[in-house]
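Subject: Medium chain fatty acid hydroxylase structure
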Amino acid sequence: MEQGTLAAALLISCVGFFAWFYLKNRHGNGETVPRMYPLLGTMPELLKNKDRILEWTTEYLAKSPGHTITLKRWGAKPFKLTSNAQNVEYILKTNFDNYPKGEYVCDTLRDLLGDGIFNADAGLWKLQRKLASYEFPTRSLHDYLMDSVAEKIEKRLLPTIASICGQRVDLQDVFMRFAFDSICKLAFGVDPMSLDPSFPTIAFARAFDESTRLSTERFYQVHPLLWKIKRYFNLGSEKHLKEYLAIVNEFAAMVINNRRKKTGARENQDLLSRFMALEMEDTGSSYSDKFLRDIIISFVLAGKDTTSVTLSWFFWLLSKHPKVENKIIQEIVDVAERNHEPGRRMKHFSYSELREMNYLQAALSESLRLYPAVPFDSKGAKGPDVLPDGSRIEKGTRVTYQIYAMGRMESLWGKDCLEFKPERWLSSTGSFVNESPYKFTAFQAGPRICIGKEMAMLQMKSLVAAMLPKFKFEMASDTEPRYSINMTLAIKNGLPVIPRARE
């Protein structure tokens, strides 16, 4: 009798628990949510779809009436994922102060990014943003960028591609090397010379890549405590991360020491020298080596992978859309001919000439819509809130807007949202038309909008305008590329192509 009573009590307890769990995880705003398991939350579904995580979440976001869903992993609070443009504007602008990066993200990336602009909140972020806003709009920095990029294209990129015509090469790796050399030159006046026909291994570049990969993997641990335990005991991936970061920090220290010897020398046009000159002008004292180190790492992260992965997806899309490719080439030729200098299309273009290339900018924007360099961004709620779609937010909740999904929402882009269609960015007269940054969030929006957006677009347009009329890139594989998320949406295993010289 006692055994029967115990079994009945156990059954009632189990039924009560599952009823409580169901009611607790039922959503009143019409969310279409992935299956939620007791204790484990949506973790089993996340693991099952880890190789297609962006498509999987996009499918649920598209089905949910408010384009917002709730996910939960073991040992952590539920977090919200949204592709609702009104929610995004509310988070990034309207109630900006309630949605900082938050300690979860900052703590996870602090070993790599420190308190740099991409991993800082409040005062530290405002200080670095203020410093950047002094220099990024200046004509002298634009000229320095254009001259530096033009030199890299003419003396490094084009000769390298010409030397490997007819051979299989990873185009994404070529773009990574070009971007790495360019950002190092722009940010702190150092040229690693990684873009060479011999494709040398650069210790700092490799260490930086591995550091970003291992830092990103922390977000995918079963529980956040796991990577902290491994770091404490110097085990596995955390041991390797520590070793790679030592190389990164040694390089940063060398750059800072070299620049300190020339403090205030305005003839050095790189960003680090400009910032160090500003600190002397403003306060008469120097920023710490740690502060400058974090700035250096932030610049490399911003300038290296974002443009290179964007260009990789762009050239793959062109291979699938030859009519778009031909239109871009024709536009480049037309701009060159308007300046009455035959052959200019094989070299670099001025700032004003690049601004004339509306169709090229439309095609690059369309590529970013479908394959954003950074596929999502996450914030932490400082206090309870309600989003415009009715989603209730508790204090400490992670709120993530999925940029990849936003580019694929029929409600935002129409029934042809999955098509690569540059014309959607053009007016009836052929002029480029910007979209709302809360709809097209590839460069973020609001106070934290990417301050280097225009520079990134100029760099990409310069590269395409120089390469495309001169070389044809045949895909060396018919397999559609897959992505790997390593802070940026890189093509997994690279983009194998065979360059051919055009007639």
